[in-house]
């Protein structure tokens, strides 16, 4: 088995197997909790709920993306995994690319699945749910990429976890504008733009994260 | 096959705004072992990390063509996994057969890594960092946490590795009972 497959298998086992990264379950539950809180706060009137519902799901997804940040690189950095990969000639960029894939797999599809019960809680119609799912498919890789970049950049900071959450919010605003914007315009253009931002972020992230890991060793 | 030389020339290391050592040069031929000696905080670990390529030197360069293994204070094994499975991950990465050849470790194969004692963790880390034949083995305070028997086993492992044409660089403030060990006092290179 190739080195990359071995790395991916470990990453996925850690994410889904209830390993130390806390798993893929926690962000999904958090996502559902946010979607569940809104009807309580706004009231059970279905009209405002269904109008704001799509946006609420997007905000919930963005908040859920903050949860796994402190477990993406920090444990591997402290335990010396990243050093040992480097000694074996596996570049930091390759490690980051594999982790981007595993992070998205443990974050994007579960969130898209959880969108169905969330949509039921918010009383969204079928067309909105379809636009929402396409938007999340286009946007979650970008959210995962931003999260990974920030996790690598805040490796050596004491208050890294709290700061990482704050850093993710403004960087994710373009994804939110186009992704949630597609809901009101109903067009594919918003989703296409979301996908374009995601692609750009996914292409950039392995290099940014790799450089950040090397800089963290000097720190 | 000609083994690889380790050539360190005019190395300097800076951490923060403090220069730890400078003008450090040595040459290690295949089969050679060198002990870096010095008090805490004098730059032994930094020297090893520079040689490993993990830190950039402030000045000078390190030349070595071959595989490098590093044993430091970390245990790069997944804590929740049984020891055997955690080591098997690295065996798959290295494309090698896993071998729990440390004394007292083979009975611990099914025990999760987080339940291991200090000495057992150190022995597991030694197994994890086992070098390729002819490679360079960097050992940072390798005797920490080891009992007398395990320390003797480790010295045997290192001398076996060197006898097979490998190189070893040991950073330790305590004596390492290897017969043919070149000392290098890092204090001599303090600025």
From TrEMBL, chain A:
The record describes its membrane topology as:
Multi-pass membrane protein
Query: Is Cell membrane among the key words of this record?
Result: yes
Q: Which Pfam families match?
A: CcmB
Give the location in the cell: Cell inner membrane
**Which Gene Ontology MF annotations are present?**
heme transmembrane transporter activity
Where does the chain cross the membrane?
Answer: 24-43, 55-73, 94-122, 134-155, 162-183, 189-213
Q: What is its main location?
A: membrane
CC per GO annotation: plasma membrane
Gene Ontology biological-process entries: cytochrome c biosynthetic process; cytochrome complex assembly
Under the heading InterPro entries, the entry gives: Cyt_c_biogenesis_CcmB, Cyt_c_CcmB_bac
Give the keywords, sorted: Cell inner membrane, Cell membrane, Cytochrome c-type biogenesis, Membrane, Transmembrane, Transmembrane helix, Transport
General function of this protein: Required for the export of heme to the periplasm for the biogenesis of c-type cytochromes.
Membership in a protein family: Belongs to the CcmB/CycW/HelB family.
What protein is this chain from?
Heme exporter protein B
Please give the organism.
Answer: Croceibacterium salegens
UniProtKB/TrEMBL annotation, chain B:
Can you tell which superkingdom this protein's organism belongs to? Bacteria
Q: Where is the ABC transporter domain?
A: 6-189
Q: Which Gene3D superfamilies match?
A: P-loop containing nucleotide triphosphate hydrolases (3.40.50.300)
Transport as a keyword? Answer: yes
Organism from which the protein derives = Croceibacterium salegens
Q: What is this protein called?
A: Heme ABC exporter ATP-binding protein CcmA
A GO molecular function for this record?
transmembrane transporter activity
Q: Which GO terms describe its biological process?
A: cytochrome complex assembly
**Keywords in UniProt for this one?**
ATP-binding, Cytochrome c-type biogenesis, Membrane, Nucleotide-binding, Translocase, Transport
């Amino acid at each position: 088995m190739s080195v990359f497959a071995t790395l991916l298998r470990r990453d996925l086992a850690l994410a889904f197997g209830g390993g130390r990264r806390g798993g893929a379950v926690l962000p999904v539950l958090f996502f559902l909790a946010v979607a569940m809180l809104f009807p309580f706060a706004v009231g059970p009137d279905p009209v405002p709920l269904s109008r704001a519902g799509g946006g609420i799901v997007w905000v919930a997804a963005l908040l859920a993306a903050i949860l796994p940040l402190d477990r993406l690189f920090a444990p591997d950095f402290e335990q010396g995994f990243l050093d040992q990969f480097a000694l074996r000639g596996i570049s930091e960029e390759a490690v980051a690319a594999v982790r981007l894939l595993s992070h998205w797999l443990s974050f994007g599809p579960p969130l898209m699945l959880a969108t169905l019960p969330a949509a039921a809680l918010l009383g969204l119609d079928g067309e909105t749910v379809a636009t929402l799912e396409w938007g999340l498919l286009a946007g979650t890789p970008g959210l995962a990429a931003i999260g990974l970049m920030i996790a690598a950049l805040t490796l050596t900071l004491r208050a890294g976890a709290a700061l990482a959450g704050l850093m993710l919010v403004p960087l994710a605003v373009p994804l939110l504008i186009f992704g949630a914007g597609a809901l009101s315009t109903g067009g594919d253009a918003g989703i296409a733009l979301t996908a374009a931002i995601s692609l750009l972020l996914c292409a950039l992230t392995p290099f940014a994260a790799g450089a950040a890991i090397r800089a963290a060793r000097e720190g | 096959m000609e083994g690889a030389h380790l050539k360190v020339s005019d190395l300097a290391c800076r951490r923060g705004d403090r220069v730890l050592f400078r003008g450090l040069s040595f040459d290690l031929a295949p089969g050679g072992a060198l002990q870096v000696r010095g008090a805490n905080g004098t730059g032994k670990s930094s020297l090893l990390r520079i040689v490993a390529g993990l830190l950039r030197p402030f000045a000078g360069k390190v030349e070595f063509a071959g595989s490098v293994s590093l044993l430091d204070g970390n245990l790069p094994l997944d804590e929740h996994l049984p020891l055997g499975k955690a080591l098997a991950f690295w065996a798959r990465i290295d494309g090698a057969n896993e071998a729990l050849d440390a004394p007292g470790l083979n009975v611990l194969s099914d025990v999760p890594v987080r339940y291991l004692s200090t000495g057992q963790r150190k022995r597991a880390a030694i197994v994890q960092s086992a070098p390729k034949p002819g490679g360079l083995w960097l050992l940072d305070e390798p005797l920490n946490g080891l009992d007398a028997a395990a320390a003797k086993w480790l010295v045997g492992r290192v001398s076996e590795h060197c006898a097979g044409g490998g190189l070893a660089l040991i950073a330790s403030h305590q004596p390492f009972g290897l017969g043919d060990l070149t000392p290098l006092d890092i204090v001599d290179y303090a600025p």
